[in-house]
Amino acid sequence: MPGPGSELAATRLVCPACGADTVRTGPRSRRSGSIVATCKRCDCHWLTNPSPVQQIAESYDFDREMYAEYVAAKRHGTLEDAYEVTLRRLGELIGSGGRELFDVGAGAGEFVALARERGFEPHGNELAPGAIEMAKEQTGVELHHGDLSTLEGDNLYDAVTMWCVLAHVPDPDDLLAQILRVLKPGGVLFLQTPRWSAMDTAGLAAARLSRGRVTRVLDRRVTDAHIVLNSRKGLTTQAERAGFEVIEVKPVARYSLQTQSYLRSLGLPERAARVAARGFDVAVDRDLFFRNVLDLYARKPLA
Fold it and tell me: What's the pTM value of the predicted model, to 2 decimals?
């Protein structure tokens, strides 16, 4: 009898990070229908059956009220600390060069506003009209509405940044190619993207042992919103394939959502989530929790 996910056997799957075809698929989730694949070469994991591209694009069509609810659920102190560290590092890597910075998927403009305070000339784009409206209201920054392919010109910026964008797009290679196009020679890319961690390995093991019945963690972590959970090796290879010179790839524990909100999204009742969040917050604050994201710094070659 064919096993779960065997309908994919006739389809050649290729790792979106390193390009290898040494792929193993997991069981189909009985809850969501999703199927997660594992690259045996670089340990990248991804959703093999995401929704159609147009449907994913439409899911980011937040209005002002919807986006405000998302912003309210963020763990702001954590993000602000990360923004400061990143801007300092970018300044060091750029040196005495220009200060034109473009933030891909800039949200409500918090990062570009801080970049402006730290001496950068900030720009950015967004797909969500509600985010663009909030950015204009709260920071005065006018974001470009559309993806990078709609941005005219080449060699425009000294730095490009992305906070958890690469995992959201159906064609990450094209996004990296667009970034390479708009960066000046010698310009620096910073990106943060979700990382496959021990928590996810446990979730995948539970899914396999239960033949797709126990998938709540996996369904929350690998979705249309996080199509790819990368590995250090996979992200390095992907950036190099795109033409970048990789400076550093580092696993980091950085939880951008409030713990209680995250636990509620996993299906915990409100009271249970509130109680459990206290212990999780202590572990997160003491840097004792899973390193859930990767930070990458890379440079566009001079020639």
Answer: 0.84
